[in-house]
Records
---
Amino acid sequence: MATKLSISELDAQIEKLKERRRFLIVKSAERFAHAATKAGLAEMELSDGELDGIVAEIAARFQKKPKDTAGASPQPYRPEAGRIGTPAADSHDG
């Protein structure tokens, strides 16, 4: 049979879990920030909406699809032509 815990013991456990949650969130954020920097996203002038679209597209590639939509592919993210950071705006033709 489980032992009864006092309210203070429960509060202590809750605080430990909250601290662990904060730690895991920070580690996850650092991991994604490192990947974004390594990929060059940190140096591009992207709006929050553009960045959200890029991340959503990447997430869709790795999420499990229900069986009835297995043949459908996610719509790729296409930034507006001529925007900073797009191939049209960053011509390297000399």
Note: Residues 86-94 have pLDDT under 50 and may be disordered.
---
Amino acid sequence: MRGMRPITEAHVTEPGFAVVEVAAADEQTAFAVQELLATQWAIAPADRTTHEPGEPGVRLRCHLDLRQQATPA
């Protein structure tokens, strides 16, 4: 699987925007962390994880807008 692309200025254009990269042993754990973040803030969630050959576990990258609280489902 191809690795994650670099974080660019477009990802963090304003105060309150954040890129969060989660490293976890498995997909289930990575998505659980993403769900936990989504309970607090507006989030652009990742729909998949990546795995770098030769590195342990998986990675997931999501984008947060800390200026907005999560909306109840």
Note: The chain has a mean pLDDT of 84.
---
Amino acid sequence: MCGRFTNELTWSELHALYKLADQMFPTKSNMQPRFNIAPTQDVDFVHLDKAGNMELNRGRWWLVPFFAKELPKAAMFNARIETIDTSGAFREGFKYRRCLIPADGYFEWTKGENGGKDPWLLQMPGGEPFSFAGIWAHNDNLRVTSCTIITAPAVPEIEHIHTRMPVILEEHAYERWLSGEDQGSDAKALLLGAQIDSHLEFHRVGREVNNSRYEGTDTKKPLLNSL
């Protein structure tokens, strides 16, 4: 699963990652760094506009399906790849509303020796930016734009931390995923085949991050006994 992540990307890093049009950022000011993003908070995501160009949008990280009459109480911040094409809440987005969610790290938890939860930060080498594969929705009645992160079984290198992981895509697969040219089992194969996995590095961080309201800049700092 993925229940918390970080995004310190600057405007220039977003531009380089997605080849976004300059007119989308007229002032070219840096984005606000975020160190502990939690479900239901607004996040940036990228999808294709009507002309087929990558467009940056913002929405609630907790999917609100287009047909919902109220905000869902069930957990909708992750969508399992195994059932994403059959779940009533996710299948429309899987077919027609795909997105990429920029990040530079995400957190998972293990049980600590004293019964508490120990957070681990997982990143690409050097903290390089990456993209979660996701789907998005817009609900006209509730006037809510939202998104969710697709998850899959964890690769062996990190399954001791958690048995599931978010799907992190290689850059070469961005446009193909967003385009929707692959459907059904072909789309799932695309996600799993282009998934970044063994490149991930991880270390323990302080338990302050367990509080979803904690936004300290030291959330990525490794503990001395993290290895």
Note: The longest helix spans residues 184-193.
